[in-house]
Automatic annotation (TrEMBL):
The gene is tpiA. One of its GO terms (biological process) is glycolytic process. Keywords: Cytoplasm, Gluconeogenesis, Glycolysis, Isomerase, Membrane, Transmembrane, Transmembrane helix. GO terms for molecular function: triose-phosphate isomerase activity. Belongs to the triosephosphate isomerase family. Its main location: cytoplasm. The lineage of its organism: Bacteria, Pseudomonadati, Bacteroidota, Bacteroidia, Bacteroidales. One of its GO terms (cellular component) is cytosol. The keyword Cell inner membrane does not apply. It catalyses: D-glyceraldehyde 3-phosphate = dihydroxyacetone phosphate. This is Triosephosphate isomerase. NCBIfam families: tim.
Amino acid sequence: MVVPEGEEEPEYLTTFVLEKDGVKKEFTTEDYPEDTAWHFVESRTVLVKEGYVPPVHDFSIMTWPDGEDITEQVLSDKGYTFLLISPYLEFADDSNIDRINELYDYCGEHGYAFYCLTASGDDVIGRWQDLTGADYPFGITDEITLKTIVRSNPGLVLLKEGTVYNKWSCNNLPKEEDLNVPLEDGELGRLQSASRMMTTLRVVLWFLVPLFVLVFADRIWVGSKMYRRMKHKNRIINLLKRKEMRKKIVAGNWKMNLNLQEGVALATELNAALAADKPNCDVVICTPFIHLASVAAVLDAQTIGLGAENCADKEKGAYTGEVSAEMVKSTGAQYVILGHSERRAYYGETAEILKEKVNLALANGLKVIFCIGEVLEEREADKQNEVVKAQLAGSLFDLTAEQFSNIILAYEPVWAIGTGKTATAEQAEEMHAFIRTTIAEKFGVEAAENVSILYGGSCKPSNAKEIFAKPDVDGGLIGGAALKCADFKGIIDAWKA
Ligand SMILES: O=C[C@H](O)COP(=O)(O)O
C-alpha cells in the first residue's frame, strides 16, 4: 500500500484462531506457530491506530498454510492481482468453478497474481481443492472484511496497487472472450471509474444522443409546421393580392326567360342602378340572341358588358336556326357563354363541339365564359376533379396562352344550378383552387393567376359575399337572381366592402 506523503499509515491487528488437539488458541502474525499440527479456525482484523484510509483497508492476507503475511506485497503490487473472495468456501457457489480455473490459467499466462482469500479452515480449503481442482494459492483473511469486499460468495476482485479496479459476482465473472487480451489492453483492466465513464458515455451515446436527436427533430417538425402555416398564410395573402389584380366579374345569364320588352326593361333598370351606384367589379349580362342588339343600345358599355348565351359551332352557311359567333359580335356583344351544363345536357354539346365554338368565338373577338362542373352522381362518387379537368382539357387545352387570356371560367356544380342548393364557400374554393392549378399546369402560373374563375349555382345576395371572399373565387355567373335588378345588384354589391 502506498501511503501519500504527510499521511500516517494505519495499524491493524489480525488475530488467528487455531486449533490443536481440540484446543483453540489465538495467535497474531508475531507468534503464529510453525507447528503444522495447529489448524486454522478463523481470523479477525481490528484497527489499532487510525491513519490514511486506503482504497482497500481493514485487510490482511496470511498465506495458507504457511501463515506468511503478504498483505503489503499484494496491496503494493504494481501489476494486477485477482482475488477470489470467499468468506466461507463451504458455502461457496461452485457452479462457475471452470471459469475460475480458466481465469487462474489466464493469470498464469500473463503474469498476474491470483489468490483465493477465505476465512475457512484447513479442512474446508482442502475439500475445495479436491472438489474443484483449484491450483491457485489461498490466503486467510478476516471473514467480516471479506464479506464487506464483495457480497457474492465467491466474488472476484481485481486489484492494482491497492486500488480495486473491478469487481464481479460469481454469476457475472469475466467471460471467456474477455480473457483473449491482456488486462492492460482490454476493458477488464480499466479502473472502474473509467469504466463508469465509459458507461456514462454509452448512456450518452445510446440514450441522450437519440433523445437529443428526437428533441431536435421535434423542434424542427414544430418549426416546419409553423413555417408551413406561415407559408400557407402567406400563400393566402399572396392569393388575395393576386386576386386583387384579377378581374372581378358578376355575369348574369338570363337563359330562356324574358321577352324582348322585358329584357330591355331589365337592362335599362340595371343600367340606371349601376350608373347611380358604380359597381366594384365588371358586370356582364348574357341574353338570348333576340335581345342582344336592343339591350346593347340601352347599356352603358363602360359599365355593363353584353354577351350571348351560345353561338354556333359553324362559321356560317346553311345552318337553319343557328347564330354564328360573328353575328353575336355584330350586335355589340363582347362575350359569349359556352359549355353551359344545360347546353351539354339538353343539346348534346360535346367537348369537341365546344372546342369548335370556343375557337370561332375567340376568332371573332368575343371573350368566352366557359362553363364546367360535375353532376350530383359524379360528386357523390368523388369524381368532380376528374370530370372538370376532362372538360377543360377537352375544349380548351389546344388554345395558345394568348387565346386562353380571353377565357373566363365558370364553375357550376350542376347539382346546385337552379336547385336552391349552393356549394359551400369551402367546396367552391376547393374546386376553384383545383381549376387554377390545372390551368397553371397547362398554361403556366401567370395564365392561372390571371384567369377569372366565377362560381355559378344558386348564388344569391345572401351568400355571394361569403363565396366571393374565397381566394380563388373571382365572381359569379348568376341565373335566377339575374332576372331581378335588385337581386342582381345585391350580388354585384357583394364586391363592395
Ligand atoms: O348560368 C347560371 C347558372 O346556371 C346558375 O343558375 P342559378 O343561379 O339559377 O342557379
